[in-house]
Amino acid sequence: MISEEYFFERNAYLEKRIPEMEQKLAASNAPPQKKMTYQYSLFRETYQHLMIRYSLGDDVLTLDVYFERILTALEKYRNIAVEAAKPSQYIFPKFSEFEDYVVSMWLISLAIVLNINEAKFIRLIDCIGNAGEDTLFERLVAARVKSRSLGSHLAFPGVYQSLYKAIDATEPERSQLVCQFLIEWYGNMKSTYWYDCHKGPEGGGFFGYWSLEVAGVVKAFGIDDSAFCDLAHYPRFSANRSHEFEK
């Protein structure tokens, strides 16, 4: 069981930890490779912090400040990576990597749900790259900007086919497809670093199991969520919702 107290404690930790990491990186003379790794850890902490705040019940209109910190951390990571990485070296994100893809879907969905302005939206998709590598991601991008190819395939059709099909479906199939995706979502996340983290010592760094990609699709394509708004893992981004304090 994850208690409300855990979320408050985790939030307090990240409120202190993130500025400390930012300051340490700003003053660091470490080699670019080491700074790259540490900056990626900072980036990961920033998006976890936003999800902690959401799990605590923050209104969606207050989350944009946390998104700005995420975007800044990601940009700094990419800048360091360009300097540090060898041509063949892995740099986040690669859509061939499932976890990278999921986090990228979270970020683009947050940008849509939070109605991030166009300049920040462009900054985000420039950082993520992978143009044309996944048609679901590109449909979300195209809801805001029209400058990229839609692509022709899903990077992970076994997981994301039902959510993608929901975009162009009509009711009641549309709601049924989203319901199917949400019901299967957590089990499909088994290969991610955060799967079952709530079972770890002292909460294991748990930040909430939220399918942000569903929220992005719902907002971008005007899907009625009344049939699935109470399903586990669906972030409604409204005040009238349940917290995710128990697992």
Automatic annotation (TrEMBL):
Protein name, as recorded: DUF1911 domain-containing protein
Domain of life the protein comes from: Bacteria
Domain PoNi C-terminal, residue spans: 133-236
Matches recorded under SUPFAM superfamilies: PA2201 C-terminal domain-like
PoNi N-terminal domain span: 3-125
